[in-house]
Amino acid sequence: MTSAHPTDKDTAPVRPTEQDETAAAASELIGGPVGRRALTGAGWWTPVRVVALVALGMYALGMVQKLPCYSGSWFSGQTSQYVHACYSDIPHLFVGRGFADGLIPYFDHIPESVSGGMDYLEYPVLTGLFMQIAAWLTPGGGDLQHQEQLYWLVNAGMLMVCTAVLAVCVARTHRRRPWDGLLVALAPAFALTATVNWDLLAVALTAAAMLMWARERPLAAGVLIGLATAAKLYPVLLLGPLLVLCLRAGRWREFARALGGAFGAWACVNLPVMVLAPEGWSKFYSFSQERPVDFGSIWLIISQRTGNPLDDANAYAMILMVLGCAGIAALALAAPRRPRFAQLAFLVIALFILTNKVYSPQYVLWLIPLAALARPRWRDFLIWQACEVMYFIGIWMYLAYTGSGDKHQGLPTEGYQLVILVHLLGTLYLCAVIVRDALLPERDVVRRDGSDDPGGGALDRAPDVFALGRSAEHAGTAHFEGKGTYVRWGTPAR
Question: Positions of the region Disordered (predicted)?
Answer without folding.
Answer: 1-20
